[in-house]
């Protein structure tokens, strides 16, 4: 298994109704193709050996005998193939016929899952031929002189990697109010396979996809679905042969329906990612043993090969790639920020806010949030006191943008230079102002914060924090300087998303007169402007030159905190996501920096101010993230250095 990934597949064949030999030939052809593509587990459609539309032919003894013959052939002809696969077959047990999914691995039938819910409405008449699986319970089925466990409550567990446990629900089982995959997931199944025969009607495909996406997300599973296609009887129905692979609600792969050929789709499922989400939720751990007792566990054997992952890794996981989704996301985040601030102001009876505006992205976004909040509360924007505090590193560009933006938004502009106060402070602490070290920089940040706090007392207002999630993760904030505020509206927004939010507000919320300024802010390099500009008056101190590209750090943060992945896996994913932008050596360099800063700067997060949570990651010590300030990073760094 490569970094917790397992390759799964869904296949659909050109069916010949009641021609078991032909169908089995097609199944074997696709199994070999899947093996060539390193698929570990493969699922075929419901009743794939016979075809779903056999009707009363299911009751023919000859057809039933042919099914057994082809199952024996299947296990023998695939004995040397390193794959586990699932085929659909009608099997007679005692007094009844059952709709079954047969699991075969390395020359053995591992187990047989029986369909639980038999549809008998509209175009479906399955109860005419098949009994409900619940009427069977657990039993033994003898095939080729071997006893095989058959029943409804079946789980299939890998012999060496139990996390790759899978369950099977067959077609209609998914469509009922309480699908079997729910308790299967609680009992430990991370993968669900669904051999199906779902005919196509106008709009049904979209509903089917939403159903699978929802069930995959609700159960936090990888869901692999294969449905009957071309060749099924068209007496009354047409089958499009849909194959779908989802991971926790996100589609990984799909095929094209209504194709007159055998089809195979594959997807690389991240088992570690699924387990990470489950382990954060008590329901899975609390209920596993109770639910597990209901199931027969069937071990299967296959080798999880080292994979060249065939999976898109988004380099910007915080930012939707789809323009419409990005629009919706930005609007929702902006509203969460604004409603959070509105509640705080209303609760404390405050009608004035104080905010430091530098002309950079973060303070610009915070100012825009304040303006929208005041609009929601019907407050005068003049009570937004925006203070620009030029220092030794302030450039004309950012100074002008800050002043122009405050004026265009109708807020109250205050200009308070910090230069003289900082020089007096340098004298008080015997610091040479020509030495541009951390004392030189942090003195400016703390002087600005002191001005904001004291002005808030004077104006009976609160200080709005401007720092973002990425700065908190890296500790790129001055302790008791810009690190501190009375409400931090950007605290859970990563730097890569701040830019898109400001751009969204510029085009959808801000006054037209402010748009030009906002677009220039977007074009300004990210900098704390604590060091003097260059000879041409341009920004000399660029944050990303010091600590690395924010897009890399946001990527590291997402997978470190959201899923708890190991450094080596994050490194592997980052190289996939940024293969055309950064070398492996560059990724490794900044990954080391990320972990060093993430661990060493926890003390700043342990006392961070309140702020609204907007996404899946929040570093508030009162919310999602409780980390000791003296945690040791050594073993994480050793793993990275060994790469």
TrEMBL record:
> Signal sequence: where?
none
Q: From the UniProt record, list the reaction(s) this protein catalyses.
A: deamido-NAD(+) + L-glutamine + ATP + H2O = L-glutamate + AMP + diphosphate + NAD(+) + H(+)
Q: Name one GO biological process term.
A: NAD+ biosynthetic process
Q: What is its EC number?
A: 6.3.5.1
The UniProt annotation places L-glutamine binding at: 121, 198, 204
* Record key words, sorted: ATP-binding, Ligase, NAD, Nucleotide-binding
Q: In the UniProt entry, which residues are flagged as the active site?
A: 46 (proton acceptor), 115 (for glutaminase activity), 171 (nucleophile)
List each copy of the CN hydrolase domain by range: 6-271
Q: What is this protein called?
A: Glutamine-dependent NAD(+) synthetase
């Amino acid at each position: 298994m490569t970094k917790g990934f397992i390759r799964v597949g869904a296949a659909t064949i050109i069916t010949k109704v009641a021609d078991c030999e032909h169908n089995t030939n097609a199944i074997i052809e696709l199994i070999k193709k899947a093996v060539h593509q390193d698929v570990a587990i493969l699922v075929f459609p419901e009743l794939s050996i016979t075809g779903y539309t056999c009707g009363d032919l299911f009751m023919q003894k000859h057809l039933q005998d042919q099914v057994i013959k082809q199952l024996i052939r299947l296990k023998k002809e695939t004995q040397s193939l390193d794959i586990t696969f699932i085929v659909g077959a009608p099997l007679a047990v005692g007094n009844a016929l059952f709709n079954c999914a047969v699991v075969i691995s390395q020359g053995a039938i591992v187990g047989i899952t029986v369909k639980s819910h038999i549809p008998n409405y509209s175009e479906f008449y399955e109860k005419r031929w098949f009994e409900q699986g619940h009427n069977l319970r657990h039993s033994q089925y003898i095939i080729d002189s071997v006893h095989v466990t058959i029943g409804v409550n079946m789980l299939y567990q890998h012999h060496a990697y139990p996390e790759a446990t899978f369950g099977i629900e067959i077609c209609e089982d998914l469509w009922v109010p309480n699908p079997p995959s729910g308790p299967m997931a609680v009992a430990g199944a991370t993968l669900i396979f669904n051999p199906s025969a779902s005919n196509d009607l106008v709009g049904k495909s979209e509903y089917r996809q939403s159903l699978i996406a929802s069930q995959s997300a609700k159960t936090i599973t990888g869901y692999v679905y294969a449905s009957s296609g071309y060749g099924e009887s068209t007496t009354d129905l047409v089958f499009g042969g849909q194959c779908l692979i989802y991971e926790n609600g996100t589609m990984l792969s799909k095929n094209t329906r209504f194709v007159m050929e055998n089809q195979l789709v594959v997807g690389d499922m991240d088992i570690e990612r699924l387990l990470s989400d489950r382990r954060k939720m008590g329901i899975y751990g609390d209920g596993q043993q109770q639910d597990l007792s209901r199931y027969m566990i069937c071990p299967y054997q296959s080798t999880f090969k080292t994979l060249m992952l065939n999976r898109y890794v988004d380099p910007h996981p915080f930012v939707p790639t789809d323009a419409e989704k990005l629009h919706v996301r930005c609007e929702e985040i902006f509203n969460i920020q604004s409603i959070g601030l509105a509640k705080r102001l209303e609760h404390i009876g405050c009608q004035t806010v104080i905010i430091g505006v530098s002309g950079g992205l973060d303070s610009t976004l915070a100012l825009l949030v304040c303006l929208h909040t005041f609009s929601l509360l019907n407050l005068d924007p003049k009570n937004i006191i925006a203070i620009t505090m030029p220092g030794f590193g302030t450039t004309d560009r950012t100074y002008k943008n800050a002043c122009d933006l405050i004026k265009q938004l109708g807020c109250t502009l205050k200009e308070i230079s910090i230069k003289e106060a900082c020089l007096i402070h340098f004298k008080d602490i015997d610091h040479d102002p020509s030495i541009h070290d951390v004392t030189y920089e942090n003195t400016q940040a703390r002087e600005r914060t002191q001005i904001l706090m004291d002005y808030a007392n004077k104006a009976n207002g609160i200080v709005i924090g401007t720092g973002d999630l990425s700065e908190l993760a890296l500790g790129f904030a001055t302790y008791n300087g810009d690190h501190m505020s009375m409400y931090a509206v950007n605290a859970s927004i990563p730097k890569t998303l701040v830019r898109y939010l400001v751009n969204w507000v510029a085009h959808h919320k801000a006054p037209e007169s402010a748009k030009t300024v906002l677009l220039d802010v977007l074009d300004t390099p990210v900098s704390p402007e604590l060091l003097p500009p260059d000879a041409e008056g341009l920004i000399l101190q660029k944050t990303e030159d010091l600590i690395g590209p924010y897009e890399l750090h946001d990527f590291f943060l997402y997978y470190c905190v959201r899923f708890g992945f190991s450094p080596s896996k994050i490194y592997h994913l980052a190289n996939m996501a940024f293969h055309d932008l950064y070398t492996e050596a560059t990724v490794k360099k900044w990954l080391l920096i990320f972990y060093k800063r993430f661990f060493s700067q926890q003390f700043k997060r342990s006392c961070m101010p309140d702020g609204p949570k907007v996404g899946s990651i929040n570093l508030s010590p009162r919310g999602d993230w409780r980390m000791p300030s003296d945690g040791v990073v050594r073993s994480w760094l050793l793993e990275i250095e060994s790469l």
